[in-house]
Amino acid sequence: MWYTRVVHMVLLMSRPWKHPKTGVYWLRKRIPEDLRPILDKREEKRSLKTRDPAEAKRRHLEALTELEVQWANLRAGPKSLTERE
Q: 49 in a domain, yes or no?
């Protein structure tokens, strides 16, 4: 029986996007609502500079981590630096 009477929730995970013409993988991520006025765009796109799916997954994770850190810094606001920093 294919019907299980249970609601299955789909969790969408960000994954590398393959450009249809070039075959190069990209990171595409929607920018959160609170950061859109600061960044003045709706979506972040970065080339992963590879056609290899396994390498694209690795680079995607690195780029996504870097992007999340950047967004966290934007949310934290300006930080005053000491002379040593």
A: yes
Number of domains in the chain: 1
For the purposes of burial, counting CB atoms within 10 Å of the CB of 23, is it exposed (0-12), middle (13-18) or buried (19 or more)? exposed
The per-residue pLDDT for 3 is 60
Give 3 or 18, the one with higher predicted confidence.
18
pTM of the entire predicted model: 0.76
33 part of a folded domain? yes
Distances (CA, A) of 67 to 21, 45, 64, 70, 83: 25, 10, 5, 5, 27
The pLDDT value recorded for residue 57 is 95
55 contacts: CB under 8 Å, gap ≥ 6? 48
- Domain hosting 36: range is 17-76
On whether residue 47 sits in a domain, the answer given is: yes
